[in-house]
């Protein structure tokens, strides 16, 4: 902020919250081609600074996570659910490793959703999602989610189109109910470029130790890039709500992706501001009994 | 090894595997008072060396974990189950945080067993255990386990004594079946001293941020220390089998406990020696298709 009145010291404007920077605006059409997947819209702008900033966030996240868990032991129902979506190789798995890694694994409930099983297909699509939700005090992480049911299901026509339409509303109502029950839903779209996906798939091919991660089917999915992009645009457009907005994280640079998601988590946990619950016992009396034991 | 024939250089005997040092001998009575909970029976003998050695093990564990997971994508059913048992404050939760922390959280299936729910009590005691088992490629961690059903259940007489007796055999047959199905079962008893438990409970009392971890009921359980010790001795004695031996880890020093369990995990994963599976696709052809996309 540059002040015109000369005499006063320039004051630096406070940095906007990252969630205000990355949140997809509600009620507007989404055009993913308008977003640069290599951008660094806030925070560190080079790799060294990004890695250092992310490392700094680790202990702060772990501290807040412990408070959240501690609060749950005294009846606080609040919990957080991180939903990760993005094209193949956009870094959903890498996010779990690098962003969730510094947290206490006991308090994380991680679920990677694959193609639904026969039993899952026989239930409403949200059935398997409900069963994987975090409990009070936990941080849940979904690597893919119920959004697959309006993404691959739409592009690959796994269910009739007339059954896709109602799902957006079902998702919004479901997420609203979660919010009402104390779940902070943080939905992250990992925005990857078509070129970067090619580079990442080639890297997997070029390293025999990565062949297990490669599936020739990925090349066929890639051919449907425009259809997937459109399906994402529709989902982001229809399912960015006040209760559960979508955040778009540029994902071509892994260090930026890790920093941004760590920071988003931190901001949401800080907003919850969980506190250690006081004991409901007589400390002096317990102390005396222990010393006598 | 000191050779008597003078001329030759002294050769250092290879260090014995930690699992051979800590394994509870099968077919012998177990007397826990004979084990020193502050001992460092192998490996580092001071805290600085212990912390450094444990930090070194982290990346090696993470590397083997990735291979184990990768192998499962090609049909390898093998997986590992770490069972943690020990008195209150013996460090089961701390082990998950510090030993499992360096692993990729996606590949860990962690379950803390509390008092069984009504539904769980209506099933055989192994029912809830079965449902929490790791899948191929995963590392499962049990913070408490089916052993509670012969420990607190025995001491507190939660079920009639005549129903406790058969459980040891049931456990052994269950663990044998797991081993036959490709599960490496690593059972760790965290051996804590009566004095160290008092010190740790006092620490919780003296720090308001730790009050949520304190339960006055812990003092009543502590009064039953000899009964719990005896229940552990019986469980360790009857359930140390060739397929699933018990390891006794001295737990009064947290740094030693973390090192020892990390090392035990490493030895078991190295013995599995999982390998990255080769791709079953034509690399050159995939490469060409990708470059053209």
TrEMBL record, chains A, B:
One of its GO terms (biological process) is polyphosphate metabolic process. The keyword ATP-binding does not apply. InterPro entries: P-loop_NTPase, PPK2-rel_1, PPK2-related. Gene3D superfamilies: P-loop containing nucleotide triphosphate hydrolases. NCBIfam families: PPK2_rel_1 (TIGR03709). This is PPK2 family polyphosphate kinase. Keywords: Kinase, Transferase. Residues 46-272 form the Polyphosphate kinase-2-related domain.
């Amino acid at each position: 902020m540059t002040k015109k009145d000369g005499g006063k010291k320039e004051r630096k404007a406070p940095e906007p919250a990252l969630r205000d920077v990355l949140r997809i605006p509600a009620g507007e059409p989404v055009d993913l081609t308008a977003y640069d997947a290599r951008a660094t819209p806030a925070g560190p702008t080079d790799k060294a600074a990004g890695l250092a900033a992310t490392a700094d966030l680790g202990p702060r996240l772990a501290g807040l996570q412990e408070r959240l868990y501690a609060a749950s032991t005294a009846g606080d129902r609040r919990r957080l659910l991180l939903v990760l979506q993005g094209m193949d190789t956009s870094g959903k798995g890498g996010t779990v490793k690098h962003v969730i890694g510094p947290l206490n694994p006991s308090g994380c409930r991680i679920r990677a959703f694959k193609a639904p099983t026969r039993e899952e297909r026989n239930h409403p699509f949200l059935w398997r999602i409900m069963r994987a939700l975090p409990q009070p005090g936990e941080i849940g992480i979904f690597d893919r989610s119920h959004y697959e049911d309006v993404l691959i299901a739409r592009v690959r026509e796994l269910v009739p189109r007339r059954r896709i339409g109602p799902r957006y509303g079902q998702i919004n109502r479901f997420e609203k109910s979660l919010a009402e029950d104390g779940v902070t839903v943080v939905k992250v779209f990992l925005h990857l470029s078509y070129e970067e996906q090619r580079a990442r798939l080639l890297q997997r091919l070029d390293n025999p130790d990565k062949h297990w991660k490669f599936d020739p089917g990925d090349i066929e999915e890639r051919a449907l890039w425009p259809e997937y992009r459109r399906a994402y645009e529709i989902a982001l457009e229809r399912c960015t709500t006040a209760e559960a907005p979508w955040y778009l994280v540029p994902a071509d640079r892994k260090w930026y992706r890790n920093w941004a998601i760590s920071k988003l988590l931190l901001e949401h946990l800080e907003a919850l501001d969980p506190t250690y619950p006081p004991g409901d016992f007589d400390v002096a009396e317990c102390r005396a009994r222990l010393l006598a034991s």
